[in-house]
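User: Quick sanity check before I run a bigger batch. Here is a single chain. Can you write out its predicted 3D structure?
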Amino acid sequence: TATGLTGTDWNCNLGTLTCTRSDVLAAAASYPSIALTVTVASGAPSSVTNDATVSGGGELITTNDTASDPTTIVQVADLTISKSHSGNFVQGGTGTYTIIVSNTGSGPTVGTVTMVDTLPVSLTVTGLHGTGWNCNPGTLTCTQNDVLGVGASYPSIALTVKVADDAPSSVTNRGTVSGGGELNTTNDTANDPTTIEQAADLTISKTHSGNFTQGGTGTYTIIVSNVGQTSAAGRVTMVDTLPAGLTATALSGTGWNCNPLSQLTCTRNDVLVAGASYPSIVLTVTVVNDAPPSVTNNATVSGGGELNTTNDTASDPTTIEQVADLTISKTHSGNFRQGGTGTYTIIVSNTGLGSTVGTVTMVDTLPVSLTATGLTGTDWNCNLGTLTCTRSDVLAAAASYPSIVLTVTVPSGAPSSVTNSAAVSGGGELITTNDTASDPTTIASLLPQGYWVGLWPNSGRLSIMGPGLRGFWSMSP
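Assistant: Done. Predicted structure follows.
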């Protein structure tokens, strides 16, 4: 193919490969030379002949107006590649591709020949080798420096692959060859479409409706499906893992064997066709009184001849509505004294994560040695006779009601120690293990320890005696 046609003072047309001029050419002289530049096609034959003619100038003899130039064309290699495999591959199995590099050109190869394979994402290389080839499985590349003659092929390359468990029903493996001094690159790629026999692929989903509540019940719905392209066969097992805070009370599903309940396992052996689902499993739970604000229930499925286990787990985050948890404290300051008075301070708090609902009741239980004389608290409705205080306003989480003050009198014969108890209830709480408070109270006697009081005979005098002390008082008749 002509790419250039020039000569000094020549008027040349590359399109028609024609050059003209009109200046006189003297006898025995020559015009300046014309240079014709050409490109040689990659498939050009080993020899071609280029012809040129001249005309005009007033000449009469035309028998010597043509020149032919036989031209030898050095031949180069033309590499091709083929890729093949035997039979179908299977999900989770292995397979082998055979790759052959040939020279269909008219000349031998020169320099390095490189084969590069491009695997689809569902296949993973496990081996790559060929006699005389230098192969790197990491880059899926093989190189060869031996000369490959015309019409010959290098020893075959064997590419061994692992088929992913979730590989699609068809993939295409591609190989390319380059180098060897070849010029024609239009035939340097080979594609090998590969059928992959499918297996079942089980998946699981878990859902619930609405929020659960501390102390209440809830229901989960579990569905096992086959998203593979063949039927699931053999035993299929579903296992549920309940979080702390939930207790299973029922587990059932049509066609499922879900006993015993303590194992939270359901099994079945019937075939599940591709694209179908088994009847749902229903799991009923009770929510413990102190369950946290959020829990996650997990379930897994296995069996059925599946190979892909990456989608066999379902998690269901569940919000648990919190309720109040009332606590009570009771304190006093200092010791009480026989014949005196004392004061108890009672505080009702909400240590739960939810607000109170409805009436809250505080009941105090005085020991027989004390007598209540007052029971008050801001916004509390208190009854001194029953030692009970109630209120119905909401108490937020982590808050306390105004304190209740209980005033008592201490008789002169009260023992040296008494314990006052108080209890709280209501407010929608569920946890009752922390609803009582006890306040041990020391009661001081009228006289210090080691002293005594006596009436002297026939004297009418009361005497207090003790270490280093004697006192006398006259008594009225």
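Residues 473-477 have pLDDT under 50 and may be disordered.

User: Great, the batch can go ahead then.
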